[in-house]
Design brief:
two-stranded antiparallel sheet; eight-stranded antiparallel beta sheet
Length: about 325
């Protein structure tokens, strides 16, 4: 069988210029403030990428210590090391790398890392592609994925992941020509295995995003919708998208003309209304639903509810 069009692309670079290496890695990982220090090893680096627009395999060798901040916006990335180590997501949900143990890059926000003398392998998925596979996997509408990169993985899941990576690598990194169909099937199988292996949430907003919401404001609103049922605050939202509370407030006012705490309160009021409309007076009370969604002062809650919906919560429940 003749393969007419092999869809794989490849890129490789190496050298012993530390400055050139830092610039290349900053570009490759959308990073800032990269700083490197020599270690006992003679410095050299090598970076290789093979794949297509949906999935690629990467390998990286960096014989020095390097730290900086990364925000991967358009990709989801799994990484593991064969040698070397360090910390990822320093000051937040910090993880110490263990050779052979895979982890997801933190998603949806910047994170700080500090690595030394690393031998690293990675599998990268284009953002919209993996979100599309995840939507089918979960039977939901497509939306951003948030991976718990600090969660401990089940040993059986890791073994299944490793087997799939080995099989996919034989196709993607092999010397034989590969058809677009074979590469597509390989990407889909690997994406599905990733979703089974790594704990995550699919953020699917229950209401349309506010007009004008882009970038980190969009990410903040999506996060609010996904976690409104938990005791998150605007401080948590700001941390999730990598902004200060003041920076989040300014971004919200600039893009959508409201405050983030007002947005979060409105989302929770909408959820309460949905719950009251589904219930009946004999099954639940307004007070229990309000407290469940974080409204401890029932008088202020009723006033806010009436202001938003034009009726009091007891009227919604009785109707």
């Amino acid at each position: 069988m003749t393969v007419e069009s092999d869809p794989r692309m490849s890129f490789e670079t190496s050298g012993d210029d530390l400055g050139a290496a830092l610039r290349m890695y900053e570009d490759a990982y959308e990073g800032t403030d990269f700083v490197a220090q020599y270690t006992e090893r003679d410095f050299s680096y090598r970076f290789r990428v093979v794949g297509d627009d949906t999935m690629s395999f990467r390998s990286s060798r960096f014989d020095a210590r390097v730290s900086g901040e990364v925000e991967v916006r358009d990709e989801y990335v799994v990484m593991w090391t064969a040698e070397g180590g360090g910390q990822v997501d320093i000051g937040r949900d910090e993880v110490t790398l263990v050779p052979g143990t895979p982890m997801m890059f933190p998603t949806g926000r910047p994170y700080v890392f500090d690595l030394a003398d690393i031998r690293q392998s990675l599998v990268q998925f284009e953002r919209s592609y993996l979100e599309g596979v995840a939507a089918e996997f979960h039977g939901a509408q497509p939306g951003p994925l948030v991976f718990d990169h600090a969660a401990a993985l089940e040993a059986d899941d890791v073994r299944v992941w490793n087997r799939q990576v080995q099989a996919a690598a034989a196709t993607v990194l092999g010397s034989a020509p590969v058809s677009p169909l074979v590469l597509a099937e390989t990407a889909r199988e690997t994406a599905t295995t990733l979703l089974r292996t790594f704990p995550h949430q699919l953020l699917t907003p229950d209401v349309p995003l506010p007009q004008g919401a882009t970038g980190r404001v969009r990410g903040a609103v999506e996060y609010m919708h996904a976690f409104a049922h938990t005791p998150i605050s605007t401080t948590d939202v700001a941390e999730h998208v990598g902004l200060s509370v003041r920076g989040l407030q300014q971004a919200f006012q600039r893009q959508i003309g409201t405050a983030p705490n007002a947005m979060l309160r409105g989302i929770r009021l909408d959820r309460i209304r949905e719950e009251l409309r589904r219930g009946s007076p004999g099954e639940l009370t307004v007070a229990s639903v309000a407290v469940k969604w974080g409204f401890a002062h029932l008088g202020r809650f009723s006033a806010a509810y009436a202001s938003r919906f034009g009726e009091y919560p007891r009227d919604t429940l009785q109707a």
